[in-house]
Amino acid sequence: MTEIIKNVKNPLPFYFFEQISKIPRASGNEKEVANYIVEIAIKHSLQYYIDEHNNVLVTKSASVGRENEDAILLQAHTDMVAEKNVATKHDFKKDPIKLLQNGNILSASGTTLGADDGFGVSIMLAILTDESISHPKLECLFTSAEEIGLVGASKFDYSKISSKKMINLDSAEENTVIIGCCGGIRTELTIPVSFTNGNYNGYKITIGGLCGGHSGEDIDRGRLNAHILMGKALEFLKDASFCSISSIHGGDKDNAIPRECELVIVPDDISLVDKKISMLDSYLRSFVKANEDKGIFVKAEKVNVNSVMSKEATNKLLKTLSLPNGVLTYREVAPILPNTSRNLARIRTNKSNVSIGFSSRAYLEKDLMVSVNTLNNLAIEIGGTTFHHEKYPGWQGEPSSSLVTNWQKAYNKACQGVTMPTLIHAGLECGLITAGVSGLNAISVGCNVHDLHTPMETMEIDSMDRIYDTMIEFLKQ
Asked: Of the candidates 145, 185, 147, which has an alpha carbon nearest to the alpha carbon of residue 390?
């Protein structure tokens, strides 16, 4: 049944994983995968609803004898983060993901794998099409554009949902039951700049080879942010001679820790900067803490520059690059996780401004607003503007609910293991969906997926097998 993934216990969900991996589904490009889900529903005579945002709801009637039981909502998102290595030739708008299997590990060739959240979509499609499974009425919601701000979930018509129990399949740790997540907001900070044209001698500095990662789940792992590191590089060079910025560019996704950054500068006295440039690589390597960042490279080359920003604009950018980044505060009670965080994710130099994308996360609204106000105050100070968007709420469930205990029992029976309730410092659609469906109780579960939102993303094959077994056992209850 599967073409690439071999030696699995449950071929059906892996078959669907291979099929959706052939469909380009970067965030904002979910129409084709939504149509595929509709085709599956039609083929198996299942009721479906698709909206203008490419959200799809598929309903499967209860097994014979279980018609009077409460319905269960299963949910996953169809989009994936589109990240690739610099040397990888891949068009996320038309090319399939090239899957690679190395024993128990599934990865992709130079790109994100899309296990986030392809495994959840695949498990749901397998459950919808497998007639041997005993289950109550199932409502399977496939949402769009989750990775760019939970957009699909924020626009779905929840009057179409009758379930009061929900399992979100978007966690990345098999031995946990997620019962809460933080809320988040994205911010676009725009700094107006003007350029002076001329013929200048400058340097192009490139930082790359960093691991990056998920801006929520990996924010406390000590991984370097390429933009913050570039700010340190510029401050280091300024000790020799002031360096005006010509351009700065880096990052791509607001929910990914940036792995690369490119800066073009014009020193007041390039001869004084030459010696500092020779020391830059070793200086920046001194900040490496995580093993995953040991592949860092720093490249500096002399270039001719045609335009340069003012010193005032350069100082404004330096102030922005020195803003506290990463984990801002930790929770004071168990589980000890980041409480608030901020990720300087993306920088673009345009004709008349520099635009900088941030993502802020916090469990409580008041803490999220602290980060928002910090960015607003910075914008006022440096003469910039902020635009806040894609805000979504946090979510807190009950650790001792029947939904949690029933999942734990199912996991123990299917896998002879233990799984424990916890929180996650990332955004999940559970907050929006539980707000939209009155009385809905939710948990989030999933298999072991590593290095999400990076080309290093991998999934443990046997872990997905076990989560599928657990789902089947759970639905039997």
From this structure: 185
For residue 251, give Cα distances in angstroms to 207, 219, 226, 298: 11, 15, 8, 16
What predicted TM-score, i.e. pTM, was given to this entire model?
A: 0.91
- Two domains, one topology: 11-182+394-476 and 194-392: no
**CA–CA–CA angle 469, 471, 474 (5° rounding):** 110
Q: Is 79 exposed, middle or buried (0-12, 13-18, 19+ CB in 10 A)?
A: buried
Residue 389 half-sphere exposure, CB side, CA atoms within 13 Å?
9
pLDDT in tens, 103-122: 999 999 999 999 999 999 99
Question: Alpha-carbon Rg of the chain, whole angstroms?
Answer: 24
Decide if 419 contacts 444 (C-beta within 8 A): no
Using DSSP bridges, classify how beta strands 56-60 and 458-460 pair: parallel, antiparallel or unpaired: unpaired
**CATH class of the region 11-182+394-476:** alpha beta
In the structure encoding, which two tokens stand for residue 245, read together? 């910025």
Options 3.40.50.920, 3.30.70.360, 1.10.940.10, 3.30.930.10; which CATH number does 194-392 get? Answer: 3.30.70.360
For 239-290, the pLDDT digits (tens) are: 999 999 999 999 988 899 999 999 999 999 999 999 999 999 999 999 999 9
Q: CA geometry: angle at 280 spanning 453 and 285, to 5°?
A: 45
> Torsion angle, CA of 370/374/376/380, rounded to 10 degrees?
150
Task: Report which DSSP code applies to 291.
Answer: G
Count Cβ atoms within 10 A of the Cβ of residue 351 and give its class: 0-12 exposed, 13-18 middle, 19 or more buried: exposed
CB burial string 263-279: b at 16+ within 10 A, e below: bbbbbeebeebeebbee
CB 339 within 8 A of CB 183: no
Tokens of 318: 């330096």
Domains in the chain: boundaries? 11-182+394-476, 194-392
Closest-CA residue to 142 (of 471, 361, 353, 433):
433
